[in-house]
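not sure who needs this but someone in the group chat was asking about histidine kinase from Paractinoplanes durhamensis so here u go. i didnt clean anything up, its just raw.
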Amino acid sequence: MSPPLSPRRRIAGFALAAGGLPLLTAVTGEISLFLAAVVGVALVGGLWPALLAAVGGFLLLNYFHVAPLHTLAVATGENLLALAAFVVVAVAVSWVVELAARRSAQAHTLAEVAGGVLRGGPDPLDGLLRQLRDTFTLESVTLLERVPGGWHPVAAVGEPPAASPADGDAEVTADDSLVLVLRGRPLTAGNRRIVTAFAAQAAVALRQQRLAAAAEGDKVRTALLAAVGHDLRTPLASAKAAVAGLRSTEVEFGEHDRAELLATADESLDRLAALVANLLDMSRLQAGALGMSPADIGLEDVVPAALDELGPAGRDISLQLPDDLPAVHADPGLLDRVLVNVVGNALRFSPPGRPPSVTGTARGDRVELRVIDHGPGIPAAEWEHVFQPFQRLGDRDNHTGVGLGLALSRGLAEAMGGSVQPAHTPGGGLTMIVTLPAGRTS
């Protein structure tokens, strides 16, 4: 653990001893004042400055004010007793000061530990373990959980982490199933008490983390059910109504009407299939079970194919890809899903007569695709919000919100080593920048 007294206080103590005692010697030879000076140095700087003051003060007093003058010879036993008294007072007072400072530092550390867990943060458990490692200058700190057949590391900071309690220089029990394992130095009895408080707070932080994860899982499940009710119902109802109309024997439809009903059913089922595919991809992405087969592919092949999937509206989109644009290293199927979702979203928000455009640019070892629309745009403060799954919850129609598509697009792009970031469109609107690694053979 770091010293209880700060370096600044120790330096001040040495300075006080080195400057104050000669000044005091020039003024008086009163032994009680020299003793008071030793106490003052001990209160300021602790043990080592106090010992310097005790020995230095005694030597100055003996040299300038005790016969025989101007010699360091100790003439009587009383002088030896005075030296011993100086040293004893210095040690006693500095010990009290060091003890008080150490207890104050311990109390401050414990308050920070408790406050850190209460304040939360992105990862309070990781922050707690880092604080423990830094406080005691350890190599690593590992929180182990007892599982059938052995131990499982729940969290760790530093290298090398411990795989079992036997791997550390010290271990402290957090609760019936959790143990903190420390590597780097053994613990004194006083330090063990502080680490025990760290261990208890680590157990609390782990429980909070798991409760938050469970709550987030419930939130996602609730959102999924709401999304199913909100987004699946409309195309399903449209397709069902179109089919019911075609099967009806009460109304005689002309050829044009039958073609419109079939087109409605076909479009609704396409929307339904796309939404189900998004839901399945998102579930695989969150479960870490998304299969990928990345390869070097040319955007001049994959982008037009994705636009064709969007139907007639996709064919109105302006596409500008330079002839020397490098290939990208990505999974063709996943990249198609990213482009269909991002461009489809841009189409939904583009005003009539101003379809979005797609441009490509090489930037070092990355390739950028910009999907530019001139719709109403989104305030910068809301940019990250549109990438949250199911953020359309609460919408009353199918023409607002961005649903699941952008959340899935960002997740798929990041899985391929890329990203999806929003930007303002000059003149109004939103630009989605899809960045992917350039192909290795480009």
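also The chain has a mean pLDDT of 78. if thats useful
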